[in-house]
Design goal:
BirA Bifunctional Protein, domain 2; Rossmann fold; 15 helices; 16 strands; elongated; ligase; nucleotide-binding; Histidine--tRNA ligase; EC 6.1.1.21
């Protein structure tokens, strides 16, 4: 026997009935995007490695440790499986001059790849929903994106403030971050003996990321560090306060977290995360912010932009934890076919129902014909269908099919099977 092949560690199959939950979540996301006027975009899974090195930052964890990068054996191009969606979206916007006619609201759903230690809710192939607003500089779109996520939590049955909490910060502009960076480095150097090896490595390359450390021994040093918000100028503070004013007016609770920095170098001004305490250490469900310099950084004309991304695996895990995931999808009806009934008659009748939007399942016949009616009724009941359509010899001979409710009492018959679709709407209300 040949060796059985298995999926790569951290890259998982999604099979029924779990796949129905993914479809349900995707439907919720698409409905949300339609309400807010966002249009779908789709970009390649494989991109030039330089896109992420230039876009995310050469000294970020993603670029240094987590990217799946390789050399094309045909032409030597350096390629990478996309580790996140924003850089590819901006590359596509630039390449197709998509902002020529003005700003855009876009979203995407798809797989991303990071080579990290697999754990529950965090995998090497994971799926991300992203929303990007490009070409608009005002704080209103920052607030809109945050309110949009709050609306999604409501659609999914999550409680804002209990199941998920909003954290907010401003990273200001590059010159403000530079002044803060110098003060931060000076502070950390004065306490160098308390820094761990990772912090020492980042001290001069990316000191802002040290503020995000989870090392308990470093918390006093981090807590006493200079806060970026104290270095913000008038315009940056005005932008931040305008975002907060919208959230306050909407009654959306949030916490200003001065240590919130995000993991990519392209952010400026508003940054935010939705976090939860219900998943242990895997607390971030959704995060994003403004990245006004990235479009120019990746070769386009200067344009502001802001967006967010959420991990679908982690969100589904949270929904399961709080009991908000739907049950398996169930058909409206299940066809029970008695021996001797002409199969063409059954198939035509079922197709007429399906044409009306009714979901109906037929138990496939074996080589010796249909299974026993008793066995078919058991399968009909197990399927979760609300009705069994009983095709018995006597009913079919009279041009009828018996409709047996499986979840409630009573039985009715439909005459003239050739016109069964005429009764579909009343027989099986959606």
């Amino acid at each position: 026997m040949a060796e059985q092949l298995k999926a790569i560690k951290g890259m998982n199959d999604i099979l029924p009935p779990d796949s129905a939950r993914w479809e349900w979540l995707e439907d919720k996301v698409r409905a949300l995007m339609r309400r807010y006027g966002y249009l779908n975009m789709r970009t390649p899974i494989v991109e030039p490695t330089a896109l992420f090195v230039r876009g995310l930052g050469e000294v970020t964890d993603i670029v240094e440790k987590e990217m799946y990068s390789f050399e094309d054996s045909l032409n030597g191009d350096k390629l990478t499986l996309r580790p996140e969606g924003t850089a590819g979206a901006v590359r596509a916007i630039n390449e197709h001059s998509f902002l020529y006619e003005g700003g855009k609201r876009l979203y995407y759903i798809g797989p991303m790849f990071r080579h990290e230690r697999p754990q529950k809710g965090r995998y090497r192939q994971f799926h991300q929903v992203g929303a990007e607003v490009l070409g608009f500089a005002g704080p209103d779109v920052d607030a809109e994106l945050i309110l949009m996520t709050a609306s999604l939590w409501c659609d999914l049955g999550l409680s804002v403030g209990e199941d998920v909490q909003l954290q907010l910060n401003s990273l200001g502009q590059p010159e403000e971050r530079q002044a803060h960076r110098e003060a931060l480095i000076a502070h950390l150097e004065a306490h160098a003996e308390l820094l761990d090896d990772e912090a020492k490595r980042r001290l001069h390359s990316n000191p802002l990321r040290i503020l995000d450390t989870k090392n308990p021994a470093m918390q006093p040093v981090v807590e006493a560090a200079p806060k970026l918000i104290d270095f913000l100028g008038e315009a940056s503070l005005a932008h931040f306060n305008a975002v907060r004013a919208v959230l306050d007016a909407a009654g959306l609770p949030y916490e200003v977290n001065p240590r919130l920095v995000r993991g990519m170098d392209y952010y400026n001004l508003t940054v935010f995360e939705w976090v939860t305490t219900r998943l242990g250490s895997q607390g971030t469900v959704c995060g994003g912010g403004r990245y006004d310099g990235l479009i120019e950084q990746l070769g386009g004309k200067p344009n502001p932009a802001v967006g967010w991304g959420l991990g679908m695996e982690r969100l589904l895990l949270l929904l399961e934890e709080v009991g908000q995931l739907p049950g398996p999808a169930q058909p409206d009806a299940f066809a029970v076919v008695f021996p001797g009934v002409p199969l063409p008659t059954v198939m035509v009748a079922l197709e007429a129902l399906r044409a009306q939007g009714v979901s109906v399942v037929l138990n496939p016949a074996g080589k010796d014909g249909p299974a026993s009616p008793k066995s078919q009724f058991k399968k009909a009941d197990a399927s979760g269908a609300r009705f069994a359509l009983v095709f018995g010899p006597d009913e079919v001979a009279r041009g009828e099919v018996a409709v047996k409710p499986l979840r409630e009492g009573g039985e009715q018959q439909i005459r003239q099977m050739v016109h069964i679709a005429q009764w579909a709407a009343t027989l099986l209300p959606r």
